[in-house]
């Protein structure tokens, strides 16, 4: 595959074509399964035949470095085989060093030797797993130990281990042209700063409203929610700037020893709720590195609960409007690294289609979170497959896929004789005469073997603005 690079707020291939990506997260937290989705190659082939061209592939510190300074090449070779197969079927990959509650001791992430929790308690029976970020002394201490670069049993600091590990990974995967980025850590968690910030925010509200229940923050008035958000933002943005950005720059130094594959910067674990403090990455001399991807996550507050009847599209729209503002400030391309996480239900496709409109409006790439066993055959997830411009010779202006009418429209400023490729989910009723193009162009259709969809290829015969309508 042609290697992608960052150019302003776009992804471009080696020929300068703009590339849009539609994808999924594949994150297997099960150590007994080798931290890789079983039969993942067949699943990748299935999704490639449905127009998907990107995956966020979870890898784990516990899998890479099971003992201090000793890397598990057998595990990394299995990951490499997945990356290689993904390239074979036309899928780009960004590697995500995943963690939830910091460590495999709690859910997934760091190995136990790197989990310096000082034997503190990890409570059981929390109503939602992520409450442990503010209620588990063990998780909090383990994260604080990491950011403080406390020494492991071998006398080497945890951050030092982490940097060396990423240097090793980057060197191992540098030759794979379908690697679009390295994500140093999923949703970095700030440790004791989190309960401190929430304590301050809740305390501020309780001073004026003693009846406020911190265990039910959703009951806050709009004014109270705004005040809490302001306090949390102040603290979490400080974490991003003072702790997280030096961490990203440190990982950049390690990764740049092997090449210029982009660094994926997502923001802290509470990035959905507050604005980001992420900045441009730079080398030790302070020079800005151009190969950086902004990869925010975004969910409604009902995520991981059984309250999807309360799902707010308006809230999700606001969440990603904030992410758009951050993108414009940073001047970086976006891959929405996580969104959705929807249960299978009658409402699921409607919620997917709402998010699709946001992705279309901002021309963002994304990886839906996450693949679950059997979802490829579940009609409640069918809207993840959509029509979109895969590659544009020129500059994309706008596009939209109408699920009900099964119609894709796209507008772009075209380069003469440049090949633009659009994916369309169902070519059964689409022939050349049903592809309407506003300018003189050569049109061809490339169906995908064994699938209903395929690619419509448009080669304009002159420079200028062009509009295409398929279906």
User: Could you give a short account of the major beta sheet?
Assistant: 6 strands, parallel
Q: Work out the count of structural domains.
A: 2
Spatial strand sequence of the major β-sheet: 7-6-5-4-13-11
Helix and strand composition category: alpha/beta
Report the CATH superfamily of the largest domain.
Answer: Glycosidases
What is the typical, i.e. mean, pLDDT? Answer: 96
CATH first level of the largest domain: Alpha Beta
Strand percentage: 15-25%
Query: How many β strands by DSSP?
Result: 21
Q: Given the structure, what is the number of helices?
A: 10
* Rough outline: globular
CATH topology label of the largest domain: TIM Barrel
Helix percentage range: 25-40%
Poorly predicted parts:
none
**CATH architecture designation of the largest domain:** Alpha-Beta Barrel
How far apart are the termini? 29 Å
The radius of gyration is 23 Å
């Amino acid at each position: 595959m042609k290697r992608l690079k960052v150019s302003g707020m776009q992804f471009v291939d080696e020929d300068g074509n703009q590339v849009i990506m539609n994808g999924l997260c594949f994150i297997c937290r099960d150590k007994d399964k080798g931290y890789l989705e079983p039969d993942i190659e067949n699943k990748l082939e299935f999704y490639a035949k449905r127009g998907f061209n990107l995956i966020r592939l979870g890898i784990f510190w516990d899998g890479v470095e099971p003992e201090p300074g000793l890397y598990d090449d057998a595990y990394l070779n299995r990951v490499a085989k997945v990356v290689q197969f993904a390239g074979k079927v036309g899928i780009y990959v960004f590697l995500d060093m995943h963690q939830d509650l910091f460590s495999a001791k709690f859910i997934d992430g760091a190995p136990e030797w790197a989990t310096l929790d000082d034997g503190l308690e990890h409570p059981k029976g929390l109503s939602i797993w992520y409450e442990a970020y503010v209620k588990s002394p063990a998780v909090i201490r383990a994260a604080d130990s990491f950011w403080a670069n406390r020494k492991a049993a071998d006398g080497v600091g945890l951050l030092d281990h982490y940097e060396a590990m990423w240097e090793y990974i980057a060197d191992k995967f540098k030759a794979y042209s379908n690697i679009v980025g390295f994500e140093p850590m999923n949703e970095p968690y700030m440790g004791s700063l989190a309960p401190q910030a929430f304590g301050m925010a809740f305390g501020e509200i309780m001073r004026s409203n003693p009846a406020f229940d911190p265990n039910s923050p959703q009951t806050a008035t709009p004014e109270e929610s705004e005040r809490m958000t302001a306090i949390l933002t102040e603290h979490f943005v400080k974490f991003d700037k003072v702790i997280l950005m030096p961490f990203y720059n440190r990982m950049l130094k390690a990764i740049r020893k092997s090449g210029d594959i982009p660094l994926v910067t997502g923001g802290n674990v509470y990035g959905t709720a507050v604005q980001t403090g992420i900045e441009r990455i730079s080398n030790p001399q302070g020079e800005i590195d151009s190969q950086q991807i902004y990869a925010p996550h975004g969910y409604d507050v009902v995520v991981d609960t059984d309250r999807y009847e309360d799902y707010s599209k308006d809230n999700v729209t606001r969440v990603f409007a904030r992410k758009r503002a951050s993108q414009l400030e940073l001047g970086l391309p976006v891959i929405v690294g996580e969104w959705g996480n929807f249960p299978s239900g009658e409402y699921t496709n409607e919620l997917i289609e709402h998010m699709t409109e946001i992705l279309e409006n901002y021309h963002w790439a994304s990886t839906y979170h996450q693949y679950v066993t059997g979802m490829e055959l579940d009609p409640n997830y069918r809207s993840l497959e959509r029509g979109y411009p895969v590659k544009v010779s020129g500059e994309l202006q706008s596009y939209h896929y109408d699920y009900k009418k099964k119609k894709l429209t796209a507008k772009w400023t075209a380069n003469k004789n440049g090949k633009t490729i659009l994916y369309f989910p169902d070519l059964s009723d689409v022939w050349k005469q049903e592809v309407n193009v506003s300018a003189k162009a050569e049109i061809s259709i490339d169906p995908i073997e064994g699938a209903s969809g395929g690619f419509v290829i448009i080669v304009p015969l002159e420079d200028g603005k062009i509009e295409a309508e398929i279906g």
